[in-house]
């Protein structure tokens, strides 16, 4: 039995439909991350699960029990908020035990639950402090501790790391991963940060404009996005997209031309009804550009921006008349990722190749019709 | 002298003059309470020839202790009623999108426009018909009714900015709406409650007209009405009246000094 079932969920705000007939299941012990851009409906969906928003239609089932109309506290969920939502007038201990106190549990039970959660989160020393005396990371731990003491069927996280600095965020990511493994709990986590989604999730739900674009394990989504939105959303820097035209058909696939790039690119496409003259989008991951191009498309560009991160380097190439669209930079630069240090300067020339075996292809409706060969042979 | 500092001097000069204008009558009241009747009329602006507490003794003798207690009870009860009623009302109004509740909010705000003098007669009849004349309830209820609009507006602005996540966290923790209000919202509304309470306490402590109308029995009189007993038909004991007034303003002055910060903050926040 799934721990959480969302069935045909619809949420309207007046005439605006925020969630459009969404369905998915979360298995027991799974860590599901809902990810998407601002306004895609991910937080609304989480709040519907928590009972903080009513649903227009559809149902929510937790451990086989339809909780669509239940009060938030009767749903068997606990939620961790982005800005912690700790009660400022209570100590950490009181904050963590508040739900049990409201439920009328004996003091001994409350104490035991609080002590256990504090030990798991290593905040025993903070128990008698007020929230204002805690750092951001400690506050977030207390917020998680408050959820743990309730021993819910499903943990809900609403962008819990957004208020933390970068170092603390990566530390908390590891902490949450450990917590998930230790508790074996079912967790639903909302974020707009694809790095959090990729690193923590058992499965990712990609939402866009109130609908689910794709659901699957992180690497499946990264390697086999079903459309251009998912391809562009997962991966940092984003995938580079180039507009191309089908110039010929071959036995294995299609030949493509693109304005600003010399020659044809032969891409294997299985079962896609393409014909000469069709417009397609070619996607290239920043790490997929070749350094020593011999065939395929060759991109001659000038380095516009260089970001040296120590163990890796990000280069943004100005392709002259050729522009990447919907790219990481507003100027249409091509993002190139290298796993080594590169000594280069602004305006230095760089020649990289677009390997036909390393490109994604999207049709005119932005549906993916070809994936890099390496992934294809791995999976199919 | 720079332009800025000249402006500062003018401002400080104006504020100092204004402060003197307000403070001098109070100073005269304090000095007068230490004078004899004769001194008060022979040398009204001078210092007392001999500092004596006789006026305070005479004032206390007419039952100031009882009046003080009545005023304290009436003020505490009215303020508590106002804070709880308008707090709950403002919370509901601030959290609701209902058009009807918005209309009710407008009606509450319109309550400001009704002067107490305009409803004195019907109010008297209602209290009389309820058999409440000469009881403290006879003024507690009208005071509370008159305090609610102002305090509701004050709380309403405060609750609009109150973090909703705390209420949502309380709902997830199992709190009902009413429990959320009393366990989470009210304890965190200290500044708003304090400023509302101070405003209302000052008004109620000093209120005269309603108290004069509703309370005739000396055992239920509040301070402003009780002090009148020191004034006769043909002659008045002015030093004792001034001493009575000094006693009357002392508690409220103490509260103001202790909670000055909230008082100023609430005034500053009224423009929201």
Characteristic key phrases:
heterodimer; A: alpha+beta; Rossmann fold; OB fold (Dihydrolipoamide Acetyltransferase, E2P); six-stranded mixed beta sheet; elongated; disordered C terminus; B: mainly alpha; MetI-like fold; 13 helices
What's the short version?
The complex is a heterodimer of chains A (380) and B (272). Chain A is α+β, with helices and mostly antiparallel strands. Chain A contains nine helices and 21 strands.
Explain this structure.
- The complex is a heterodimer of chains A (380) and B (272).
- Chain A has 380 residues and is of the alpha+beta class.
- Chain A has nine helices and 21 strands.
- In chain A, strands 6-7-8-3-9-10 form a six-stranded mixed beta sheet, with helices on both faces.
- In chain A, strand 16 and strand 17 (313-318) form a beta hairpin.
- Residues 376-380 of chain A have low confidence and may be disordered.
- Chain B has a single domain (65-269), classed as MetI-like (MetI-like fold, Orthogonal Bundle), CATH 1.10.3720.
- Chain B has helices at residues 3-32, 37-42, 54-95, 99-110, 120-129, 137-160, 164-172, 177-185, 190-206, 209-214, 223-226, 238-258, 260-269.
- Chain B starts with a helix and ends with a helix.
- The chains are: A alpha+beta (380), B mainly alpha (272).
Mean pLDDT of chain A: 91
CATH topology of the largest domain in chain A, anyone?
A: Rossmann fold
Q: From the coordinates shown, what is the CATH architecture of chain B?
A: Orthogonal Bundle
* Biggest pleated sheet of chain A: 6 strands, mixed
What is the gyration radius of chain A calculated from CA atoms? 24 Å
Shape of chain A: elongated
Looking at how many chains there are and whether they match, the oligomeric state comes to heterodimer
